[in-house]
Amino acid sequence: TMLRLRLLTWDVKDTLLRLRQPVGQSYAAEARAQGLQVQPEALGRSFREVYGAQSRRFPNYGHSQGLSSRQWWLDVVKQSFRLSGVQDEAALTKLAEKLYGDYCSSNTWELLPGAAETLSRCRQLGFRMGVVSNFDSRLDAILSQCNLRHHFEFVLTSEAAGFAKPDGRIFEQALRLGGARPEQAAHIGDDYSRDYRAARAAGMHSFLLRAAGQAEGPQVPPEHVLPTLSHLLARIEK
């Protein structure tokens, strides 16, 4: 079957890039650098709790509530440390500012296996490419730092779009930016509901990156599953 695709849209986190170490470890290392002892495991738990609460209270970085994503993240970092026992406000501010910057850096992120090669090959094959990611405005800088930005005609974040996946409106914006109809486009991501199911609901093709040994989620036709990014080419070159 020839899919006749023109546009490929990509999720980023855990599809193209992943964190080199868990958040708790990064936060604890920064605290140590500032002379504070905080347990990485405790910080990791605090972060997950705070991130969840902040996401429910201020969805999509508080976009519709007038928050900036920077302020949203500084609050998350400070609250995570507070919950882990750090009370010094000056230290909290310093930690938050430093970590907000650190997460823009290629020291924090690494490419998933096959990412660079697959993106290069897709461009050689003439596909138009864009990013569709639930992320804040730092994403452009992160992709540049990791030497991936040049593969994409556009980088559409949920912050810029005003909608987060699985909301179909972010995919509609991406299709307009990529100049393609839904049936001419495919989305690649690692999340069943936000990436795979949401893109299909928008009328696009979709591929789900699902590493071997990952807990089996909902049933997906095997030809839509990518055990690694390198499997994409065989699926779209037919």
From TrEMBL:
CDD domains: HAD_dREG-2_like. Coiled coil: none annotated. One of its GO terms (cellular component) is nucleus. It holds the Pfam family Hydrolase. Signal peptide: none annotated. InterPro entries: HAD-like_hydrolase_domain, HAD-like_sf, HAD-SF_hydro_IA, HAD-SF_hydro_IA_REG-2-like, HAD-SF_hydro_IA_REG-2-like_cap, HAD_sf. Belongs to the HAD-like hydrolase superfamily. This is Haloacid dehalogenase-like hydrolase domain-containing protein 3. The gene is Hdhd3.
